[in-house]
Amino acid sequence: MFIAVIGTGYVGLVAGACFADKGYDVMCVDIDEKKISLLNSGQIPIYEPGLKDVVERGIKREHLIFTTDLEKAVTQSNAIFVCVGTPEGKDGRPDLTAVWAVSKSIANALKKNSNDDFKVVATKSTVPVGTGDQIEKIFRDAGLNNVEVASNPEFLKEGCAIADFVRPDRIVIGSNTERAQHSLAEIYSVFTRKSERQLLMDRKSAELTKYAANSMLALRITFINQLANLCELVGADIEHVRHGIGSDNRIGPSFLYPGPGYGGSCFPKDVKALIDLGREHNFPQSIMESVDVFNQQQKHVLSAKAKKHFGGALSGKTIGVWGLSFKPETDDVRESPSLFIIDDLIKEGALVKAYDPEAMETFRSQLDHKNLTFCSALYDAAKGCDCVIVVTDWNEFKMPNFDRMLGLMKQPVIIDGRNLYPPQKMKDLGFTYYGLGRKEVLPHS
C-alpha cells in the first residue's frame, strides 16, 4: 500500500510518520525545498513529543520519504491525504488557496499519467462543509472518474498527537461512496484492531463533525471561564464548583478548567468558521458568536488583574510571564493568550521577563519589543519582578521553589492563570495570590 501525504505541517508530518510506522510506504510532499531537505536529514521543524523518533524510524526503515515531487507521489499512491493549511483569511473565513492549488495539481498529475487505477483523495485539512464537492468537481472536470474524494478530519491534540493518531478516540471517514469508505477503513484498520472506532458517514457530515467537535470544546472552556469570573463576584470557589459539576457523569471533567482563554491553530479558527457557515445559511450560530466574543475578552483578564493590583499603574513595574505557548508540550503560540497579555503589559509601560520551555523562538517571531526580555530559565523570569503571571500550565511550573522565589522577587505577587497553587499555602508562605474564580489572598490577612 502506497500513501501520499500532501503538506508537511503539523497534521501532515504526524500522519505521514505514523502511517509509515505501521509499515505503509509513505511519500510526504511539500513545496518548501529547505524543509524537505531538513526532514530527510531527520530534523523536525516543530516541537511535538515523540515525533522525531517516529520520523527517524520511518526514514531508517525506508518506509518514509520526503519529496517535492508531487506528481511522482500521487501517481504511485493508492491513497492521497491532503494536509495543507487552511488559515483564517482576512475576511475571517478559512483561506482555501492551498487546498484548491493542491487539488488542481493532483488532478493535473493524474490526468497526465492516466490509468484505470482507483485512488481516494482524503482531506485531512479542516475545510468548510461542501469543500469536498468542489474538489470532486475538479477531478470530474479533468475526466478523472476513477478518483473518489473523502473527508477524513484529524482530531490531534498538540502535545500528544502521536498517541492520538495511533490510539484514536475515533476515526471519521466521510464519503458518498462505499468504495472510498472501504479503502480508507482498510488503511486505518491497523490502528483499530482492538476497538472499533471507525465512524463511516457521508462527506458533508464528516466535514461538519470537525467544526462541531472543536466548537463544543471551545464552548466548555468558555462556560467554565464565565463561571469562574462569576465566582469571583459572588465569593464562590471555581475549583469546588467544577468538581461539583464534573463529577456528574453526564457532564464529566474534561475541558472544565478555568484559564486565560483558548488559543492555538484550531479552536479560534474553527469557531469562526462555524459562525460563518451559519450566517451563510441565514441561521446564526448565536451561542458560538458569544463564545468567540467572550474568549477574546478573557485573554485580557490576567493583565487586568495585574493592573488592578498595582492601582492602575504598571509603568516601570517588572512583570514575569511564565508560559508563552497556548498549551503545554507544544511550541505553538498562534492565538496564545500570552500574546495579548504581554502586549497589554507593554502598552501599560511594564517591563516583561518571559520564559517558556519550548516556545520562545516562535513567540519572538510574533512579538518582540525592547521592553520584553526572553529568559533562559524559569527563575530568571522571577528575579527582580514585582509580579509573576502564570499563563501556561507546563509541568515545570507546577511545583516551583517558592522560598527561592521569595528571595528573588521584588514583590511576592503571583497571578495564577491556571489555578496551579493552593491559595492557603500561598498565604502561609507570604505571597499575595490571585487565581481565577477564587478569592484573592493577601499574606497575613
Task: Describe this entry's structure for a reader.
The protein is of the alpha/beta class and 445 residues long. Helices cover 43% and strands 13% of the residues. The chain has helices spanning 10-21, 33-40, 51-60, 70-76, 97-112, 131-141, 161-166, 178-188, 203-234, 238-246, 267-280, 286-298, 301-309, 337-347, 360-366, 402-408, 423-429; strands at residues 2-6, 25-29, 64-67, 79-82, 119-123, 147-151, 171-174, 198-201, 318-322, 351-355, 372-374, 387-390, 413-416, 432-434. It has a six-stranded parallel β-sheet with strand order 3-2-1-4-5-6, with helices on both faces. The protein is elongated and about 80 Å long. The model has no long low-confidence stretch (mean pLDDT 95).
Short description:
By secondary structure, this protein is of the alpha/beta class. It has 17 helices and 14 strands.
| Whole-angstrom Rg | 24 Å
Report the total helices: 17
Largest sheet: 6 strands, parallel
Weakly predicted, low-confidence segments: none
Please state the overall shape, judged from the principal axes of the Cα atoms: elongated
Annotation, overall tally of beta strands:
14
